Amino acid sequence: MSEDTKVCSFGPDSAYVDLAVEVFRMLSDATRIRIILALRDHGELSVNRLAEMVGKTPTTTSQHLAKLRWARVVGVRQDGTHMFYQLVDDHARELVALAVFQAERALNENSAHERAGVSRQAGVVSGRACPASGASDSEDRHDDD
Fold first, then answer.
1. CA within 13 Å, CB half, 4
2. What residues are paired with 87 via a beta bridge?
3. Half-sphere exposure for 124 (CA within 13 Å, toward CB)
4. What pTM was computed for the model?
5. Model confidence over 21-78: pLDDT tens digits?
6. CA 139 to CA 145: how far, in whole Å?
7. Of 67, 64, 66, 73, nearest to 145 (Cα)?
8. Contact 32/85 with Cβ under 8 angstroms?
9. Contact at 8 Å (CB) between 40 and 85?
10. Cα 127 to Cα 53: distance, rounded to the nearest angstrom
């Protein structure tokens, strides 16, 4: 069976529903979403660089990274006194990409992804770069620690 035709077999009574809620709870923070997107785009980053990219202090960023690390979303590598973070696997990246894609579709009848000819599946599953990510969205950011 190809990856594109697999169907989720979990039902409403699945033992994993409560754990799935915890995953969404972990990802339901704008700073954590921005951290995941930054790591998706740049691979491995230091706390200071991530803080700069997401517009937060290093202390706040470290607190969010600790939660993401606890949830096994990010991993860390130490080089001397510097810590470098990276995504552990593609699942969080895919969830975040799908959520952002859904938000884009909800706000725009004809999204930037659709105008670029990228389907949701192609942009998320194949790991291709997001052609719409070149647009700046910094004016849409809110300061919500």
1. 7
2. 74
3. 17
4. 0.70
5. 988 999 999 999 999 999 999 999 999 999 999 999 999 999 999 999 999 999 999 9
6. 17
7. 64
8. no
9. no
10. 21
